[in-house]
Amino acid sequence: MPTHKDLAEARNKGTATSSGAFTAETLIAGRYGLGCRLGSGNFGTAYVVQDHKTGEKKVLKRINIGEVQPNETVEAVKEATLLAQLDHPAIVKYHDSFMDVEHFCIITEYCEGGDLDYMLKKLKSTNKILDESLIMDWFIQLTNAVHYIHDRKVLHRDLKTRNIFLKDKKIKLGDFGISRILVATSDFATTFTGTPYYMSPEVLKHEGYNSKSDIWSLGAVLYELCTCEHAYQGQNIMAIMYKIVEGHPPRLPNHFTPSMRYLHSRMMDKSPARRPSAIEILQDPCVKRHLESHKLSLSLVPKESNPSEEAKAIAQALSNQVPSKGHKDQNKDISGVNRSPLELPVNKKLKSRDKVPPWVKEHPDVFVGGNISMTAFDTCEMKEEVDKLDESLSLMEVAPGQSSEIRQKDMNSMTESYQPKRYSQQLDTLKSSSSSDEVKYTSTKVPGTDREKVQQSHDGFSLFTPIASERRMLQLQNDALRIFGPDVFQSVYRYLKVARADGGVADEAKVLMGLRSITQNIKDCFLVDQLVFLEKQRENSL
Ligand SMILES: Nc1ncnc2c1ncn2[C@@H]1O[C@H](COP(=O)(O)OP(=O)(O)OP(=O)(O)O)[C@@H](O)[C@H]1O
Questions:
Q1: Model-level ipTM above the cut of 0.90
Q2: How many Å lie between the centroid of ligand 1 and the Cα of residue 34?
Q3: Residue scoring higher pLDDT (183 or 396)
């Protein structure tokens, strides 16, 4: 099957790829002729299809969901229908969705220019960068799209250059809502999918996703447009996560105008409250100046339809859907923004391997989600990274004495022993405090003290609580205990606690060597690594 690159090359040469021809035998849903494979992502495979009704080229995303319950199918299609209501020139149009045996299929607009990630990598390889004026054009189109969805109380949640496409030299924000449909059912999993490069500090700390988290990601995309580099670099995913949460946000290089650099610095402010909203960005002097100088003011900012009516319709449709058991407030994002009640159990394969550990069975009230699932983040990207590190490590020549010296030193300095933590008390408090959608303030008990911490929604749009973080820690703890057993888990935990004590900047090769001395199952050590990371964030916040 030809890839996107083959397609692009064929396009440039004005030829068709051999398997790019549409054939009658592969007519899908009685309407779409299967064409070239564009590529595969975390959840499925994308193809170019030809719509036999309209003659247009479109994209088919085929997601293997295994066996689903009929009601889940209905919910998925309902959700997709709602997303189809979004209509904006800078958003990839969502046309259709249907079930095809074990696949959930989504039909979207085709963007022949490919994605920005691919384009920027190509630019980088030829040592080129984009012109500031073009960057501003694209950035404004993107912000416009983000403003459009936020206006309708919908979050993107997965803004990244791989989800931004080019069509007729215009920007299209794509995979819109795909992440809403594709992530596993557990609500906390939704904050931890995909690549970490664009994730805001609050998302990585599981403090909640809100509209300002999309703005952070938009800032990371702007950085990439300006430099052809990710905003954060690191040896592996954990290193990147620590940098995002504990380091200083990156700044645009000096050759960009001060006003643009300043705007970008506000978008990547670690405090969500201080980040501008999408409309504030569009009103920023730097944006206005660009629009004026290019006489683009009206053409770039589309005429609004009736956002509040549309938002109401979307909210209404979502609230008609039955939330999953145990998720009273599941339909509402903590920011009050619509989120899918569906967050469909698409990742059946991943979920099925996760058996509920006895500890959870004994405490069903604690485990609100009722199921345990690894997210795409855990299973795909992180493991890919570990594989890469594993490969590079196996090629490294290490003097035998060296690793044992590290092990001995690190092990000797370990004093903390792992006590299985029970998060139930905090969760009970939090559950009751989060039951109302109108809550603007919430108080939580600080573990181990009789103090109460009051948290406040910073702009009336979002409410940060540590619920998701607590749940995530519980999930990680149980998963790791189940996989490693108590003894190995304890050793891995103690080792990583020391290794990450300095902010996660330890030499990853050394860390891996140390872990190898404890277990051969390096991949799953990252469950413990995440647990240590979240515990550290919690300690820092107390
Ligand atoms: N609407 C579209 N128009 C043109 N190409 C597309 C479109 N949607 C996806 N593609 C291409 O199809 C390929 C697979 O995309 P897909 O969205 O399935 O995964 P991804 O974006 O690479 O990863 P992820 O799972 O993280 O979203 C990518 O090369 C992408 O550029």
A1: yes
A2: 16
A3: 183
